């Protein structure tokens, strides 16, 4: 297949498997608490474990992709995700649940880095914000599907069936990725220079931090939102359906944000949307107007996704793209590993999941000043290049 939008559709569905698998724990968190006799802090750790391998694998993950190629690396990653799901589906020991989660997360790391690089290869310099917005839209789509499907599966058949379902989806991803073809002229040899200049490296570090913090804020909604609503008397299925409203609306707001960014002012759009989302997250824990707030978050929260994801592409050349995406995702995974674990501890200490949502609001609030810093670094780099 050589049509870039067709390629994007394949990447979208394959990346959706990561979100579906990640959300499998949070979607049935109350069920896991009952089955294994664990608390919110343990659930937070299990959620965060999915991103733990990213701290050490994201950077070499880019090099692995350069060495072995796009398709072999993505297939290996999907096999790791499948193996992790099978472990979690077949054990009733909490320690093995954690081991399976780590194995799945390792595959998710390699897959995320490689798919992002593959998408950027096809769209760099041509509607990149729109393409990246559609690409990252696979995350809310996968989360929304899991919130609708997995609680029902878990309630009817138990936690093992939930993880078996995630493994089945990753097998489908393996079949789909065999259809991928690289763009003409995109192949970069393993011996090619992949060294980033200092300012490009700093810009990518800041971009990765922005993406990590914004996702920490968003993750608090679907990671601890169901538990927050359960505290208020909602059933597991009803809580999952309500939280999924954010994800379904994000399916619209994420590509809309990318489209607007490609045709307007992405910097202003990202900052304005981040401030609104931070305010809504803080309001969610202090109001009974749950559905109204969730609808507003879904309508606005997706706007910054495409612009933020396209930041790294502004400073990465084809030969530095794999290693640059590795750096970008190292920061992202560090934030996403620590965020849920810290949030779980705060929720346990406060005696309510609301503390996790408040942490998410603070994380999103940190994004606007970091956006300003990124723009400053890029402007300095441009001046140096012109001098």
The overall pLDDT, averaged over residues, is: 87
Rounded to the nearest angstrom, the distance between the terminal CA atoms is 43 Å
Order of helices and strands: HHHHHHHHHHHHHHHHH
The assembly state of the depicted protein chains is single chain
How many discrete domains? 1
* Individual helix count: 17
Summed up, what is this model?
With 387 residues, the protein is mostly helical. It has helices at residues 4-27, 29-36, 40-49, 52-68, 70-90, 94-123, 128-136, 138-157, 159-177, 198-231, 236-263, 266-284, 290-301, 305-309, 321-350, 354-365, 367-386.
Tell me what you see in this structure:
The protein is mostly helical and 387 residues long. It has one domain: MFS general substrate transporter like domains (Growth Hormone, Chain: A), CATH 1.20.1250.20. The chain contains 17 helices and no strands. The N and C termini lie far apart (43 Å). The mean pLDDT is 87.
Q: Strands, helices and their partners?
A:
Elements: H1 4-27, H2 29-36, H3 40-49, H4 52-68, H5 70-90, H6 94-123, H7 128-136, H8 138-157, H9 159-177, H10 198-231, H11 236-263, H12 266-284, H13 290-301, H14 305-309, H15 321-350, H16 354-365, H17 367-386
Helix pairs in contact: 1-6, 1-7, 1-8, 1-9, 1-10, 3-15, 4-5, 4-6, 4-15, 5-6, 5-9, 6-7, 6-15, 7-11, 8-9, 8-11, 10-11, 10-15, 10-16, 10-17, 11-13, 12-13, 12-16, 12-17, 15-16
